[in-house]
Amino acid sequence: MQAITIPQPGGPEALVWADVPDPVAAEGEVLVEVAAGAVNRADVLQRQGFYDPPPGASRYPGLECSGRIVALGPGVSGWSVGDEVCALLSGGGYAERVAVPAGQLLPVPAGVDLVSAAALPEVACTVWSNVFMGPGKHLRAGETLLVHGGSSGIGTMAIQLAKAIGARVAVTAGGPEKLARCAELGADVLIDYREQDFVTEVRGATGGAGADVILDIIGAKYLARNVDALAIGGRLAVIGLQGGAKAELNLGALLSKRASVSATSLRARPLEEKAAIVAAVREHVWPLIADGRVRPVVHAAYPMREAAEAHRVMESSAHVGKLLLTR
Predict the structure, then answer these.
(1) CB 73 within 8 A of CB 14
(2) Nearest CA among 238, 234, 229, 237 for reference residue 255
(3) E strands of 22-109, at which residues?
(4) 26-67, pLDDT tens digit by residue?
């Protein structure tokens, strides 16, 4: 088969479409003929040499895909050759075929075409596991969610899911055009991080209370201000480090609010944890997609062999929603 390889870390030109060995479905896996993959920030980091795949994962980039099952490995039940699926991956989505643990498969939801389905697994699993899963920690109707990067793939999914359960949503994004797109998806409080202070804006919009949950892709740069923006009993979920990895945390401020900070990644989690998240997404998110309350937001699609151009767009932050790579 062919796949996007990274012979040497570097800029977008480091992505090379090349002949590689065919994958084989091992015990508990299925082989998927890829229709489309999606671009994530983690792929950019991997291309740059900063984010190696976990042990045993495909060396090719790509954390999600859609396609059709072409083979079943030993011990797989509940799936058949020919099924149209999308999948959460640890790697390998930028390829013609990929082997996927059966627990990380999802059926293509009703009302979504096969290519667009590639925009769903990573964002749905990331948002659901960080904002809605966990006893006593999940976002509830009537609460306020602050989403940093509201126009990103993660952000566009978070807005829709939070609104679907009856929460209020505040977002940060760069510029009026991106904020307008967030508003179209249901965001209530629109904050241009270039011009406005999100702590002031969130407090003002909540009568001084603050955000009950904050979903953060920035990391160190926003840590202190995120704690300031939290409500009493609030929860900060850090899922990205675009603003750095090290910062000082005022534990006194955290204690006074009885608040919590968690930092998670999805890629390196054990198979059983990923399977549990995927199952929860199928149970709770897929019906919302089927009835049209949540939809994939796709900025553009590029031929897979032109992945370098998609990476350039990702790094420019000019997009809203997901960037896809099609076969």
Answers:
(1) no
(2) 234
(3) 29-39, 64-72, 84-88, 97-101, 105-107
(4) 999 999 999 999 999 999 999 999 999 999 999 999 999 999
